[in-house]
Amino acid sequence: MVHVSAPTYEQLLDEAWELGRADGRFAAAFEPAGQAPARTDRCLGRVPEAFARLLWDDASGSPPSGLELNAPLWYASGFAEGLAVGRADVGRRLTFRRVFS
What confidence score (pLDDT) does residue 94 get? Predict the structure, then answer.
């Protein structure tokens, strides 16, 4: 029998950040340029408690203390970075198309 250990708190926060970064990169095509993303407590459309449970996945017991509070902050940080990277990528693609069209 293989024992799968629960993820560490750091791994859970990293996952929240990665999810935010991926969402930010995707949102770059839709968010108005030069405008900061709206602040919200929602992550992937979920309230903090549901987002913490999503990150915790099927691990037994309750998510670690503080995950409900901290995971949305990490998600928002990742989202902001992903949005900036995504906007830069969109700008490069548009420049590329103008040059070679």
Answer: 46
In sequence order, what are the residues at sequence separation of 6 or more whose Cβ sits closer than 8 angstroms to the Cβ of residue 55?
7, 12, 15, 16, 63, 67, 71
Helix (H) or strand (E) segment spanning residue 53? helix 48-56
Tens of pLDDT, residue by residue over 54-97, are: 999 877 888 888 999 999 999 999 999 999 999 887 655 544 44
Determine the 3-state secondary structure of 68 from DSSP: helix
**Residue 64 near residue 21 (C-beta atoms within 8 A):** no
**Domain assignments of the chain as residue spans, ordered by start:** 14-64+75-91
Residue indicated by tokens 């750091």? 10
Rg, Å, the chain Cα set: 17
